[in-house]
Design brief:
This protein has about 170 residues and is mostly beta strands. It has one domain. The chain has a six-stranded parallel beta sheet. Strands 3-5-8-11-14 form a five-stranded parallel beta sheet, with no helix packed on it. Strands 6-9-12-15 form a four-stranded parallel beta sheet, with no helix packed on it. The termini are far apart.
């Protein structure tokens, strides 16, 4: 049995707390009555909590109710990583702001196999490897900032497309 699992089980059996911290990805669900697309609505997430600083947010095309994909219309909490699966979509609206802070632990800030539309602000920093691995579509007409050079910051697959009509900053 895996050493970490054994340690967790032994701590639970002894009635103690785990010394190991881990997070469960936050999966987007969407479709909350009256707030169907609101990123900051806790009921739009399967675990009923908006992802925060240490969290991984996952937008899955198949798990989204009634095609209600997330829209960020205002400031959103910093997250550690964003994963957009095939069929998934994220819109950062004109007044929306999202920052992905890899905490120097996450290898990639965004893994995109779906669609990202940036009309507001998106920033990615402190990732171990590249800022983005793009196998989907990214359309930027807002402000997009990463803390790496273009060559080290964005990894494109053959199916990936990045269209920039806005501000692209390499910090």
């Amino acid at each position: 049995m895996n050493r970490v699992i054994r340690q967790l089980l032994s701590n639970v059996e002894e009635g103690g707390k785990s010394q190991q911290k881990f997070t469960v990805p936050h999966y987007w669900r969407g479709g909350t009555n009256g707030d169907e697309n609101n990123w900051n609505e806790p009921m739009n997430w399967y675990n009923r909590r908006v992802p925060g600083w240490f969290d991984v947010a996952v937008i899955a095309g198949k798990a989204t109710r009634w095609n209600c994909y997330p829209v960020i219309n205002e400031f959103a909490n910093d997250i550690a990583q964003l994963i957009i699966e095939p069929g998934g979509r994220l819109v950062i609206a004109e007044h929306g702001k999202l920052s992905i802070d890899g905490l120097s632990k996450k290898g990639l800030g965004i893994i995109n196999e779906g669609e990202i539309y940036i009309e507001g602000e998106l920033s990615i920093h402190r990732t171990l490897m590249a800022s983005i691995k793009n196998g989907g579509v990214i359309l930027n007409s807002g402000s997009f900032a990463i803390d790496k050079s273009e060559a080290r910051g964005i990894i494109h697959s053959e199916s990936g497309r990045f269209d920039n009509f806005g501000e692209l900053l390499f910090l």
